[in-house]
Amino acid sequence: VQLQASGGGLVQTGGSLRLSCAASGRPFSDAIMAWFRQAPGKEREFVGAMSWNDGRTFYADSVKGRFTISGDNGNWTLCLQMNSLKPEDTAAYYCAAGFRGTSRSTADYAYWGQGTQVTVSS
Q: What is the pLDDT along the chain (122 residues), one digit of tens a residue?
């Protein structure tokens, strides 16, 4: 299984970025795919996730209303649209895939992509 994340960059406060994560190596129809982020000196935290089975999404309170997750199950690509970005959104963003149902815990995600850096300047 491989997860390939892309789309990070530098943006000003209030701007937008779109991250993508391409998954390959096995069927993902029963997977939950998620985004996590990790700022320097902090623990990795849950951002949001989507169930491929029913398309349901759920988010951390800190990003609800600003971030939107969508997916293309034709090529198992998960996207994270980030709007109204704030300096506190600055972090390395990781995509992950798990098969233990909806979860906000890193322990429930077996597969991880490499991080993509998002930097929001004030």
A: 999 999 999 999 999 999 999 999 988 989 999 999 999 999 999 999 999 999 999 999 999 999 999 998 888 999 999 999 999 999 999 999 999 988 999 999 999 999 999 999 99
Cα 22 to Cα 11, 53, 73: the distances in Å are 23, 17, 10
Nearest 5°: phi and psi at 108? -95, 5
> Which residues are CB-neighbours of 42 under 8 A, at least 6 positions away?
91
